[in-house]
Every structure is written in C-alpha cells, then in structure tokens.
Design brief:
The protein has about 375 residues and is an alpha/beta fold. Helix content is about 25%, strand content about 30%. The protein has helices spanning about 30-40, 60-65, 80-90, 125-135, 155-165, 225-230, 255-260, 275-285, 330-340, 355-365; strands at about 1-5, 10-15, 55, 75, 100-105, 110-120, 135-150, 165-170, 175-180, 195-200, 210-215, 245, 265-270, 295-300, 310-315, 320, 325, 340-350, 370-375, 375-385. The longest helix has 14 residues, at about 275-285. The protein is globular and about 65 Å long.
C-alpha cells in the first residue's frame, strides 16, 4: 500500500488483490497529472465538478477515490478495478455508494458534464468506449484524457478527434500527458464497429472453421493469437462427465474446443474482463450444442470456485498488468487452480518459453511436465496429487 497526496488530502491506496510482494502502486504520474489539473494547480482554472462526472478506465480506483466527494460514475472493463475501487473507498473512509460502478457492458449515463478518460492499453477498447459515451457528451462537456507518454500515440488522438471533437495534448510532466478534447457541437453519430468476428483456421482441432466473437479490448481481438493456436493443437483428449474451467478465457476458444471434443463436459468460463466474458458467451452460444452446460463468470480467477470441485483447468495466463510485465496474475491463477482442482485434477498451461512457468508450477503443485513445445511456446501439465 502507498499514499497518494493531493493538495487537499492524502489517500492510502492499493491494487486488488493486495499482495505485499507486488512492487507496483495503485496510481502513476498520469493519474497525478490529471488530479492536479482538475484542481487548477498547473495554472489552469479548476474544473467544475458539480455536474455528472464520469471516470473511464480508472485502473485501480485512485481517481474515483480522490473524486468520491463528487459522486462520480466509474466505467471499467475490469472486475479487479471495481474491487480495488471498493476497497480503496472503504480504506479511506468514503461511503460505499460514493462511486457508481459500471462495467464496459453497462448502459452509460445519458448526460455527461465531465468525462475523464484513463487511456487504456487497447486502442480498440478506447474506440468502443468513446463511441458508447459520445451520445451523452454535449458542447459544454469537459473531456480530458490522461496517460503516460508511451501510451498516447497519434492513433489515440485521432480517435478522440474523430469520435468526440477537436483534440490537443498538454506538455509532458513526469512522462505523463493530458489530452484535451472539445466536443463537436454537431457530431456525426456512428455506432461502434465492435464486436468483430473471424473464422478460425483449419489446423486447430475441434474448433477448426468455427467463428468466434470478439468484443473490444480482449487480447488479439482481430485474429487468433499464436499462443492459443499452439495450445489448441495440444489440448488433452478426454471424455465423460467432468467439470472444465477455461481460466482467463478471453473469447473462450479453449473452453469451446473442450466442449466440442467432450459433449458431456460442464464448462465454466472465467475472466476479470467483462468484454472477454461477453465474447466467450457469444462464441460458445454460436457454436456449442444447446444441451452443453456452461457458466460465464466475471471474477477474480478461481477465488469463488468451490475447493476440490474441478477436473480440468485450461489456462493461457497474461504476463502484463497494463504496461507492466509481471507474473503476479499467473502466480495467483496457479495457486487458485490447485485449490479448485480435485485430487488427480489437471492444470494445463500455455506460455512463452522464457517465462519459466514450469518453475512456479513445480513449486505450487510439486510436479510439472512439458506436453509440447516449440521455439517460442510450451504447453505444461501439472497434476494435483
């Protein structure tokens, strides 16, 4: 936990789930820059926050917590960001309902007076969000984006310009920058181009030729990523009634493949991204037999899964948290998998060879074997003894 200090107060903030080994803070220079600008500390006039304030993409709730007195609406695609926000509000003595928490799938407010956008890593997610929010913006709306310099590109600015209105950027401060956008008084209203759909290639087993649905923001939404493609060629062949979890499901192709190969399996798709779970459900419903049982869960990995209740877990863990490279998510997934698996249950993982997941799996499960590998990826199997 660290303390963010503003001109008016200090705030104790942490990411979620809180991990004392995690070296990363719950905010960065881009959040600080935006907060200073709102207060008028950078020489500009303070921003009037008396109207409807919407905070988009607040990564760990730092912006929403500081602005809680203005009762903002937070819109995020991240379940973990929502949990972090709730925990940080409680940690700093704010009411639980001081911030209205909406997901990227929820209907946004019909009027927005101040729109604050933390630029996401995914340009597609930003595009979809701006299209969804644009109808609520009016000529008097203050629109400010923020991000680190490395996160703001010409393509980022063009999206604001095309969807909202004329756009300019601030000077960089501590490698952070602000985006100032003036709403066009006569905008051309165009709906979001998302979701995208594509057909899977012929060499990926049970899902070959199937069409997948990809909402904005999921990993490799325009095409099948090469790690998942490699994994699909080496999935276990199983039969009979069993509980299977596609952990960190993305668009759900791993779980769909398991369901098509074993119609008796009961599938659960889990991801912390609302867009991912919506993608997985759309993909599954379009391709699986209607009688196949499936659950779709937005959550913190396997935290809410009953212990010793799962037979097989398929996992392609992320190794980034926004712009930071970290194995914290994979580590949490592996520990959660061991608790959720029945005796003899198996965790199958694909990962870049250089990440060394075999070491963590051996530490967690006491065993790990390499099922397949090439110059870039390995498929690993760990068994709960």
């Amino acid at each position: 936990m660290n303390r963010l200090t503003t001109s008016g107060a200090g705030y104790d903030l942490a990411r979620f789930p809180e991990d004392p080994r995690d070296p990363f803070r719950a905010w960065d220079a881009a959040d600080e820059y935006l907060l200073r600008h709102l207060e008028g500390i950078d020489g500009a006039s303070p921003v009037d926050l008396s109207g409807v304030v919407v905070v988009v993409g607040d990564r760990w709730g730092a912006l929403s917590t500081v602005l809680a007195g203005h009762r903002p609406v937070q819109i995020t695609d991240s379940y973990l960001a929502q949990r972090a926000t709730a925990a940080n509000l409680e940690r700093n003595g704010a009411d639980a309902d001081a911030v209205r928490l909406l997901s990227a799938r929820d209907t946004p407010p019909d009027r927005i007076d101040v729109l604050l956008v933390r630029v996401p890593k995914s340009l597609a997610l930003l595009e979809d969000q701006l299209y969804r929010l644009a109808p609520a913006v009016h000529p008097g709306t203050v629109v400010i984006g923020t991000g680190m310099v490395k996160e703001i590109h010409t393509s980022t600015l063009k999206l604001f310009e095309r969807i909202i209105g004329p756009t300019r950027t601030s000077l960089a401060v501590k490698k952070a920058r602000l985006i100032h956008c003036t709403p066009d008084p006569a905008p051309v209203r165009v709906s979001s181009p998302w979701p995208h759909r594509y057909e899977l290639p012929d060499d990926v087993g049970a899902v070959a030729g199937r069409t997948v649905t990809n909402h904005a923001g999921i990993f490799c939404a325009e095409r099948l990523d090469i790690g998942t493609r490699f994994f699909l060629k080496h999935l276990p062949v199983r039969s009979g009634p069993e509980r299977v979890v596609d952990l960190g499901c993305g668009n759900g192709v791993l779980g769909l493949s398991a369901a098509l190969a074993n119609p008796e399996a009961e599938l659960t798709f889990i991801d912390e991204s609302y867009q991912a779970v919506a993608s997985a459900e759309a993909t599954f419903r379009a391709n699986a037999d209607a009688a196949t049982e499936a659950r779709f869960v937005v959550g913190d990995g396997l935290a809410d899964t009953a212990p010793a209740s799962v037979d097989l877990i398929l996992n392609n863990p992320p190794f980034h948290s926004h712009q930071a490279t970290t194995d914290a998510t994979a580590r949490n997934m592996f520990h959660g998998a061991r608790a959720a698996l029945r005796q003899g249950g198996e965790l199958w993982v694909v990962g870049n060879r250089h990440l060394g997941y075999h070491t963590q799996l051996r530490r967690t499960f006491g065993n790990c074997v390499t099922v397949a590998g090439d110059s870039k990826f390995v498929v690993l199997r760990a068994v709960k003894r």
